[in-house]
Every structure is written in C-alpha cells, then in structure tokens.
Amino acid sequence: MNSTSSSSIDSQATRLSLLSRVRCDDSLAWSELVELYAPLIAHWCQRWGLDDVASQDCLQEVFMAVLRSLDQYRPQGVQGGFRAWLWTIARHKLIDQHRTRVRGPIAVGGSSAQRRLEQLPELLSSTGQFSECAAGDSNEPTTAAEYRHLLHRGLQQVRAEFEEKTWQAFWRTAIDGLATDVVAQELQLPANAVRQYRSRVLRRLRQQLGDSL
C-alpha cells in the first residue's frame, strides 16, 4: 500500500462520530450503534433476572428511547459518559420489566473472555492508553469481561478505516503492551509515529463508543 492510499484510509478516522452520524439519519450508523450496545444491554437485562422475552422487549424499548432522546445527550468530558447515559435509560426500562416479569433472584455470574479480549483493560483513559478505572455509574451492572467485549466490537467496527501499519502500531503497544521503542524498531517507524498511530486509533474508538463528538 503506497503512502497516498494509506493516508486516504487513515483520514477516515477524522469523520463524524457515530452519534453524530446517527443524528444525521445515517441508517448504517444506527445499525452500528445497535450492534455495539445491544449485547451490553442484554447483559444488563440478564443480570437483572429478566427472561429472554422480557429482555427482547426491554431492548426494543431502550433503543426506541435512545432514538427519541439522542439529541438531548451531551458528552460530559468523561470516559464512559455515553454508556452511563444509556444505563440511565435502560435502568428505568428494567425497573418496569422487573416489576412484572422477574423470575426468582438475580443471578450474578461471570464469563471468561477470549485470550485477546482479556488483554483489554476495562476503560480508555484520557491519555490515549487502556487503563483500569471505575465505570461512570457505580450501580451499572457491567462486568469487566462484558466491557472488554464492548471494546472489541468497537475495534472491529473501526478496523477497516486504518492502514495495516497504523493498526499494528496501535495493537502492539496498546493491546500487546510492548514498549514504543520496541514497536518502532519492529515496524521500522519513528517512535513518535507509533505514538501518533496509537492515539489515532484510540481517538477513533472513543468516537465510536459515543464519548466524543
């Protein structure tokens, strides 16, 4: 891939955020939003003890509410802000469902992530690296494994926007945890370029997760 085509692909990372595209009635963006967050909402439903039928009803109600009220959402400058807003909506729907359909005690379980996913810590920090920190709402019933799955879905959605060397610079540093100098030598890039490429992918991921406009 020549430098011109590489630059063209990476320039897509500056496009509108996922939420901005949804607000512009982009049907593909809406599909991406549902694909990104439906499994997490389903996880919340499961943690609240809803059965499959009630969970599907709750999913539909949450996304209908999101569609109606998305224009009211404003980022608060914190990581996980959109997820916290989404949880606020979901919580009200879950309470309604729980009152009429809950069956028995809430089961608090866990699931093991795949090896690659386990390398993704819970949240993105403002410094452009993955790091452990608390979720936006302490009552939000999201396990670390489920959040890693969310990050993985986001990464899959933006992967095609980046040239291979950009992606490798991100993956080898942020995911594999290698030092910048080591990756720079491996990819035959200046260390500063490795840092820029990593930041570019992370910034795009934040946009896809709804934390930046």
Task: Offer a concise description of the structure.
By secondary structure, this protein is mostly helical.
SSE map:
Elements: H1 3-10, H2 18-23, H3 27-47, H4 52-69, H5 81-101, E1 123-124, E2 130-131, H6 144-158, H7 164-175, H8 180-187, H9 191-209
Helix pairs in contact: 3-4, 3-6, 4-5, 6-9, 7-8, 7-9, 8-9
General description of the model:
A two-stranded antiparallel sheet has the order 1-2. Helices cover 60% and strands 2% of the residues. It has 213 residues and is mainly alpha-helical. The longest helix is centred in the first third of the chain and has 21 residues, at 27-47. α3 (27-47) runs antiparallel to α6 (144-158), α4 (52-69) packs across α5 (81-101) and α6 (144-158) packs across α9 (191-209).
Provide the descriptors you would attach to this structure in a database record.
two-stranded antiparallel sheet; single chain; elongated; mainly alpha; 213 residues; 2% strand
